[in-house]
Each structure stands twice: as C-alpha cells, then as structure tokens.
Design brief:
The chain has 10 helices and 8 strands. It is an alpha/beta fold. The protein has one domain: TIM Barrel, CATH 3.20.20.140. The strands form 2 sheets. The protein has a 5-stranded parallel beta sheet. The protein has a 3-stranded parallel beta sheet with strand order 1-2-3. Helix 4 packs parallel to helix 5 and helix 6 runs parallel beside helix 7. The chain is globular and about 50 Å long. The relative contact order is 0.16.
C-alpha cells in the first residue's frame, strides 16, 4: 500500500504541467501504484484568502474515499479562526496545511501559539510546507526561499506537544532539524539521494518518515521508485509507504508515537 501525504489539485502558474481534476489525479496515481492520498489545493498558495480554494477542494473530493482533503489555513490573516472552524467542520478533514513562506509569515510569530491551541481543540493534525518547488527551478522573479530550519526548530521547541508533518525538506535539512528536535515527521518528496536510507539511518528513523509524491509538479512514479532502494528493509518500506501516514491521519492531534 502507498499513501501519498504530499499531493495537490489545481494549477501551478510557473509550470507546464496541465491541471488535473480529481478523476484524472486518481488515474495518474494509479499508474504509480498509489492507493490513497492527502490532497491540498494549489489555488490557496497565491490567493489572498485560502477558503475559496479549500471549498473547491472539498467539492472536488466529495465522495472519493481514496482522497483525504488537506485544506490550507493562513494564521497571518485576521480571520484564521473562521478558516480553521470551517475546515474542521468539512467532511474527511483530519489535518490542515500551512504555507509560511508563500503567505509571508514566520513560524516564530506569536499568533501561532493560539493557533496551535485551536488545532488541539479541534483535534486536527498539522502539516507545515517547507517548500513546494525547488528554488533552483522556479520563475526568476519569485524570490521565495524554503522555510528556514531555524524557524522550524524554534516552532517545535515552543510547541513540544505538537508533532507536525513537515513536507519538502531536503535530506540535509531533515537531518539538521532532527539534530535539535524530535517532535516532527517528514516526507521524502525532496529527499533525493541514492544512499537515502544510509544517510537517514541513525539520524531520522523510518518511524518518522512518510511517502510523498508532490504530484502534479513531480513524477509520482519517480517518487515511488525511492522506496525500491535496496538499503531500505521491508519493515522500513512499510512504515514509510503507509503505516506512518495511516497513523498520522487517523489519530488525534496529540502525539501517539
């Protein structure tokens, strides 16, 4: 079983990748052997308020049991409580996603303290997006960098009971973050190295890693190939492929490691 924790619907303005609807996304993931996916709206990245894109996501995924809607909340906006309440009430929502760098706020801002409390109240998990696309490949005028490891570390230390999934970390960033904190999980969508298992072993265990494809911006089939690396044991593959994601998206906000 493959559970994709980093998947999107919508258009990306700086890519030639065609926009897919939910049915097309399902067929695309089928070809890569992906059984289910947590899906976020790309439209929420650049729009001034994320809820229109979230509502479109809820409508597109309604009745499609293989997909878990993963809506976006912007805690830098004055109406973040209303955003969170609407997302929490939507069918199938078990977590919300943040885009700190694209929405121009830092994880160290004090507004995030009541936001984290509200997440726990609604029993929602948290997904933090470190990056969506490789900075080296993006449109030249879009000067947005990945979320700094120092900011992630400060957030995790300020919220020790929160165990977010951080998507888009490079291997180096994941190891650096793991050296100072333990209360986070990471996907492997940006962890590119033929010796990935060896690099992570002893620094970030397979119980804290999840499979992500970054569909539609990256080939889902290429991402699934990472799990074929001979250095991963069968048990490690199972944990990364699905076990950790099932636990994350089915459990409450509080850590159950």
């Amino acid at each position: 079983m493959l559970f994709d924790v980093n998947c999107y619907l919508g258009a990306w303005p700086f890519s030639l990748v065609p926009e897919m609807n939910a049915e097309q996304l399902a067929r695309h993931l089928d070809r890569a052997g992906v059984d289910c996916a947590a899906v976020s709206p790309l439209g929420a990245v650049f729009q001034p308020e994320p809820m229109p894109a979230n509502r479109a996501l809820f409508a597109a995924l309604r009745g499609k049991r293989r997909f878990i809607p993963l809506p976006v909340v912007n805690p830098a906006l004055a109406n973040w409580k209303e955003q969170l309440e609407e997302c929490a009430a939507a069918p199938g929502v078990r977590a919300v996603r943040l885009y700190p760098n694209y929405h121009d706020y830092r994880l160290t801002r004090r507004t995030l303290l009541p936001f984290v409390d509200a997440l726990e109240h609604h029993r929602l998990r948290l997904v933090i997006t470190a990056r969506i696309e490789d900075e080296r490949h993006r449109y030249f005028a879009l000067r947005i960098k990945g979320v700094p490891v120092a900011d992630l570390t400060a957030f995790l230390k300020a919220n020790p009971r929160t165990v977010p999934l951080v998507t888009g970390l490079s291997v180096t960033e994941a190891i650096q973050l793991a050296s100072g904190t333990e209360n986070f999980l990471a996907d492997i969508s940006y962890q590119e190295n033929i010796e990935l298992a060896a690099m992570l072993r002893g620094k970030l265990s397979s119980s804290r890693l999840m499979f992500g494809t970054l569909t539609p911006l990256v080939s889902a089939a290429a991402q699934s190939g990472k799990l074929c690396a001979p250095d991963f044991s069968a048990a490690e593959r199972r944990r990364i492929a699905s076990t950790n994601a099932v636990r994350f998206f089915s459990g409450p906000h509080a850590d159950r490691r």
